[in-house]
Amino acid sequence: MAADWRVNNFDLIRLLAALQVAATHSLEFFRPSTAPWYAVLVRMLGLLPGVPIFFIVSGFLLAQSYGCSPDLRNYLRNRCLRIFPALWVHLVAALAVILATGVTASTLTTRDWLLWWFGQMTLFQGQGAPLPAGWVYLGMGLWTIAVELEFYLVLPAALCLAQIANLRSRALLVVLFLASFAIQYHLTGLRVLSDGQVVLLTTLVPYLWMFLVGVLMQLGWPRLRPYLAGHATWWLAAYLGACLVFWRLRVPITAGTVWLNPVCLLLLAATTLSFAFTVPNLARRLLRERDVSYGLYLYHGLVLLLVQQLGALAGWAGLAMVLVLGVIVASLSWRYVERPFLAHKRHALHPVYSAHHGFA
Question: What's the burial of 101, exposed, middle or buried (CB within 10 Å: 0-12/13-18/19+)?
Fold first, then answer.
């Protein structure tokens, strides 16, 4: 069973998801073309939306991780080691770029800056950066880290509640799934959102159902595995076919974002997990155990804005530069920040040993 879980393509899946997010944000920023085929390209890129894939994979792996080592202290320690060291270094790098480029916002007080800094260092990455409007991309996507951190807390709490109340954990998770989806469906139907509803969109509440799809599929994995493992091509065809049908029927499915209807989300989850266990050595052969997805997700916005501030490139060249530099910076983050800290995880599904990777 250990080998079954440790030989998979999740690192590659996360990297492709991060590339999709980085490419989408770069296309939105640079807008390299106005030709009709460009709109088709953007829509095709959105067929495999990175953020929902992250949520699905996270729910699947965290359920397995917590099930293997339900010690809450180790669980939270491992999660903090995964998220915070790289996030904090990114925050320092962002501040350095802000100071180096001379970007200022004279109306902001010291209190504004300190509150923003505290939010970025803890659980409130959804707080907008106190910077001029052009720098909104600095924190683009970081709100999902806050959502992820909230899910880290909710999962053990929900499983513990089910045990205390003598409920079946799957039944409680299904109830939470339905409640979360109902809230998201309600919010998507509103033309105008109140301030409170806007804040709600940066929390776990409307997206919990996506995480729980991964959790529930992990809980049922012994039964699902024969239908998913080794069949990625078929599930991808089914997912793309469903997207085509919904588009033809004009059913809302905003590609490239977290607004997916449940049928497409379930098929996307099946496709994602099927790919993870189809030719499961593929990620190891291509990436050589380097997981640069988190670093790319963190730094692509900062790299994008640095390219824009320097005025070096635009259009397709600017997009290519963002992706190339993003991967380079992410590789440095993996080698010098993430991997050393991950080596201290305990009872991890995929431990990183310093001796194996050659540092003290």
Answer: middle
pLDDT at position 163, please? 72
The values of phi and psi at residue 14, to 5°, are -65, -35
For residue 13, give the nearest of 163, 186, 214, 161 by alpha carbon: 214
- For residues 189 and 62, the model is more confident at 62
Q: How would you class 300 by CB atoms within 10 Å of its CB: exposed for 0-12, middle for 13-18, buried for 19 or more?
A: buried
Q: Is the pTM of this model over 0.85?
A: yes
Query: For the chain, how many structural domains are there in total?
Result: 1
Output the pLDDT for position 1.
Answer: 42
Q: How many CA atoms lie within 13 A of 195 on its CB side?
A: 0
Place of tokens 């799957």: 170
pLDDT(2) > 50: no
Cα-based angle 301, 304, 310 (whole degrees, multiple of 5): 140
Of 138 and 121, the structure prediction assigns the larger pLDDT to 121
Domain that holds residue 93: 2-357
Nearest-angstrom CA–CA distance, 24 and 255: 11
Task: Write out the two tokens for 250.
Answer: 């004009």
User: Looking at 98-107, 196-205, 256-265, which range is the least confident one?
Assistant: 98-107
Q: Judging by beta carbons within 10 Å of its beta carbon (0-12, 13-18, 19+), is residue 201 exposed, middle or buried?
A: middle
3-state secondary structure of 208: helix
First to last CA, the chain: 30
Q: Which two tokens stand for residue 136?
A: 């909104």
Both tokens of 253, joined, read 């499915």
d(CA 78, CA 144): 19
Query: Does residue 268 have a pLDDT over 90?
Result: yes
Please provide residue 188's backbone torsions phi and psi, each rounded to the nearest 5 degrees: -70, -20
Q: How far apart are CA 211 and CA 207, in angstroms?
A: 7
